Amino acid sequence: MKSPTVKSRTIMGASNTGGISVAIVLIAAVLFAASFTLYLTTANPLFRFSDGPELATASHLLGVAHPTGYPLFLMCQKAWSFLLPVGNPCFRANILAALCASLVVTFVFLICLRLSGAFSGVVAACFLAFSETFWLQATQSTVYSMNLMLGSALVLIAFRALGVSGRDSAALQKTSRGDVQAGFPILRSAALFFFVLGIGLGNHLTLALFPIALALSRPIRFARILSKKGVALVALFFLAFGLLVYLYLPVRANEKPLLNWDNPSTWERFWGHVSQTDYKFKQASRTFDENVAVTRSYFTSIWTQLGPCGAVLALFGLIWGLMRRRSWILFFPLLMLGTLLVTLLYGEGESLEPAYCLPAYLAAAILAGIGVGGLLRLVTGARSSESARLRRKLALAVFILLAVLPLHLAAKNYHSCNSSGNYYAYWHGHNMLRTMPLDSTFFGETDTALFPLYYMKFVEGLREDVRLYERRWRVVEYFEQNDAQSNYNREMRIIESAMAPVFYAEYPTVPAINIKLFGILLEAFMVEPLTPTMDFPALYSTFLDDPPADVYVDRWTQETRAKYFLLWGHQAQLLGDRPSAKARFERARLLGFHNAGLMNNLSIYHQQAGMGAEAIADMERAIELQPRNPRFLSRLGILYFRAEQLDRAVSILEQSLSLDPENPDATIYLGNAFMLKADLEQAEKCFARTIELMPHHVYAHNNLGFILKKQGRFDEAIGHFRWRWGPLPSPSCHISISPRPIRCRATRRVLSNG
Q: pTM of the predicted model, to two decimals?
């Protein structure tokens, strides 16, 4: 039996010559140009609800971004802005992301070319290029496109140096000590590989998945290479040299830029920033059931990203490669397994962040390309002259079908990935800033609330009088201590020194705010007061009007639009128009039904409207989506307490405290429930715990005094009553949950029943 011709090997199989023909160069150039054009035309003109505005701001200021700092990305983005002074800084960063993503598409083609041929490489590149998550990351300023570019470059370097077939490449042949010329490619490849790895870790730490999977797929070969004289030393030197990119963080932090997350100017803060100390709550925090759900979503996402045909081809490509004993085929399932482990070990709840899974999507796309090559080999491998003609016709039909599959994926995802008309995140931030009074103070604790404001204030210079504070992390202003009490104290100092209104972007998670400042209006994203004279649709028409059919609206945009409808419904509720309020609440529910935060907000508004049953139903739906959220459990327990369902309230509040023992809202309401159940011993413990967490809690002192009086401990009770009868704090500012001031009067509400 004759072997396939050279031409067929070039099209359907891997060529072992190692050379690159003119045709291959042209194909690679066309893939790069086509993908770059596609991403450029669908790129967002500014930013979406993501890390994009914060990263663009950090690079513009040469500041420090959120952990792990991403120094390589910030420096590359800053240099790119100088090289391409076109448009706004955020759009320039989006162009850089499109450039990196286009290089990834080209590198995938070259990787698959070495494994299974040119046509397979084209199909694999198109599967990845048109997958939804990769396409979305290619149109906005995030670190993931650059991470995949560096990872695929590492694979190309390794394949070039170590060979991808069953036979070793020339660089791997054993050489004598004196044969410097033969040994030089090994040293050069090792230096390049580990230098790219070192600087790449300065972009994203998950780049380490690529060398780990490469080493595990061919451990003997890697060990043999590193054991050669001088190779290990060269590798270590260039890895350390590349990691020097992290010196950017302490150097710039010491200069006190406006955006200085964690201020990593000392070794302790630097290591805490790089190791993501602030994100420990996300690390290995999932339960077994949540891990099972995330694993299921992970494999389902591969099916969704590549489409059913692409996922089946990837599975066939894995089986085909293992059957053919292709070297390096294990690298791809190992990379997918490593990505799954990272996804399981970092995150919370049952939600899956598709951007974290991009290395797995890249591996699956290449496996799909290998599957295409294997399928064509099966079809064209004629063994008799009688069936040769039929097989050629069948091969042509399969060839056309396989070429059409990625194009179908592109048509399917074009609308959902076209961000060229999506200004919602920008409009949202602009609405918040333009409606704040002069010299306002703004507290936020979500990316959605703060990142657009960073860009507008620090890059565009809009509303420089507004002070921005991140409540959960240490971003714009660094505070030495980071425990709950010191955070509360410094927040109170900021509020008390404010000469203008103070606003909150979300429902405050520090219960002391509700105790210190009375009459907080629980709004979502608005500063304009809800009065009969306010034209709500005119003021926020950008969010209330349905977007055009060709504008992509992501999940965060939908949720934000839902909150605007919540506010509109709340206005109708204040005006006594209950039918209109209900209709707008339902509109908000339809826009963000699967978001726990939206259900939480709906519960708050239904509670304010006196609709206790609806508030409980919304809160239970939020807990179904986030069953281990202590704040949601605490709110549900309080709602049950107010509905006089004391046993249910006690059970849920105890569950909340088992997850977050330092929640004074939960402890005081649990004490109130025990007090109404005549369980004075447990009530006393709860009120004492509340005072331990918050010594100035006047209602805890009052209720504890009442308990002590009931027990005949009058001297102790008098001490707590005296504390209770002291002067109540008077708010020195106006407070709102986010955009225009509502002047709040000190309407003292007593929580106790004593």
A: 0.75
